Amino acid sequence: MDKKVKIREWILELPKRGRITFPTDDIYRQYPSLNKATVASVLKRLVANGKIQSVWHGFYVVVPVEYELKGVVPPVVYIDQLMNYLHKDYYIALLNAASFYGAAHQQPQEFTVITSGKTLRDKFKNGVKINFVSKKEIPCAFIQKNTTKTGYVSVSSPELTALDLLLYQKEIGGLSRAGTVLNELVEEMDFNKITPDFLQLFPATTIQRFGYLLEDVLEQDDKAKILLEKVKQAGIKFRKTGLKPEIQVGEPSEYEQNEIWKIIINEEIEIDE
After folding, report:
1. Which of 38, 43, 63, 119 is the most buried (most CB within 10 A)?
2. Total number of domains in the chain
3. Model-level pTM greater than 0.85?
């Protein structure tokens, strides 16, 4: 059998063996005598025919049948395998994480992944943008494994998703958008799970804004009280801060203030119903 035919068949039969991704190194392990030009030729032809997609340098996904027509494979299909290939702890975050819990009011146009260690460059390939955010520490206790058609993916818990939405509110379109998503996500949150160590992973100002939104905007008094008790247990101290950080608050008397969360209310939050 022709070498190129062998490689093509090996690749296209991967899904039958329970795999839809592969690094080029696997081809050389399977066929040690092959030269790079032959492998490159086969890969280029399969990409051109829409049978596989390059999602990272040296890493490919076999396009599932249901995505052949559209020509775009969603990152959720292969992100776990890609992160394993890159030896990165990770979790799906922000709006993409919220959608796992039914908070899909505003469908994200981009895919956000939070990883450990050195920040990866954002990727825009095949019409899909993946944003990478780096954290010094991944709070493993607040990462959930969700089942997909192709295996499992790591997703931030509702509580971690909520605080990330406030921490990275600029990246998702501002506080009102964060508030809209939180309004849909809040029923999934259980603040009895919150630990002092978990809260200490976030700036106090992020927790303050979250607490204010819970209590005054989302009218979740009971959950706000539990969060406040956890804050006290963690020994976190609040200082006055603006709800919208980039606005100069001037004299505090210019704005209403929330004394519990030490928030200077310098922005009106509008929740889309």
Report:
1. 63
2. 2
3. yes
